[in-house]
Amino acid sequence: MKLQRVIGVAMYVATCIGTAAGAQDDGKALVDRACGKCHGMASVSRERNTRGRWAAIVDDMIARGAEVSDTEFDKVVDYLTTRFGPRTNVNTASAEDLVGGAGFSRDAAAAIVAYRQKNGPFKSLEDLKKVPSLDAGDVESKKDRLDFSIAK
């Protein structure tokens, strides 16, 4: 009896882990299925669009025959916006732009601006990770949304 209970709990845990991992991959799988028939992901990844622009593009592709249901639409747009949304320049963005564009907390955004004003522009992700109050993992998770170009 105890062995059956242990096996049941193990199966439940495995299902929960699989479901959580599946939710993260869900948007990618939808984009691969819906967009991959006509577009390579390289062409999609070069795009840097706002949520509104991605929604318009996906809507246009549906009109052209892409198979995306109404319930899948938001998942596809969310995935594209998160992975291929506009980049925020950490060297010119205001704290408000760092919050809205890159997804930093207000405290982190203020720390980035203060550090930049004191130490000069950031040249790389590694430079940004030097801001004392930032979590390196959080910064790493935002790398696709950050631009480090320096205005001349």
Structural description of this entry:
By secondary structure, the protein is mainly alpha-helical. It has 2 domains: 26-84, Orthogonal Bundle (Cytochrome Bc1 Complex, Chain D, domain 2); 88-147. The protein is 66% helix and 3% strand. It is built from 8 helices and 2 strands, in the order ααααβααααβ. A two-stranded parallel sheet has the order 1-2. Helix 5 crosses helix 6. The longest helix has 34 residues, at 2-35. The protein is elongated. The termini are far apart. Residues 1-24 have low confidence and may be disordered.
Low-confidence stretches: 1-24
Question: Can you list the strand order of the major beta sheet?
Answer: 1-2
Could you say which structural class the secondary elements and strand pairing correspond to? mainly alpha
Helix content: 55-70%
Outline, from the CA principal axes?
elongated
Q: How many helix segments?
A: 8
Distance between the termini: 72 Å
Provide mean pLDDT, rounded. Answer: 82
Overall tally of structural domains? 2
The major sheet is characterized as: 2 strands, parallel
Strand percentage lies at under 5%
Instruction: Give me the strand/helix succession.
Output: HHHHEHHHHE
The gyration radius over C-alpha positions equals 20 Å
What's the total number of strands? 2
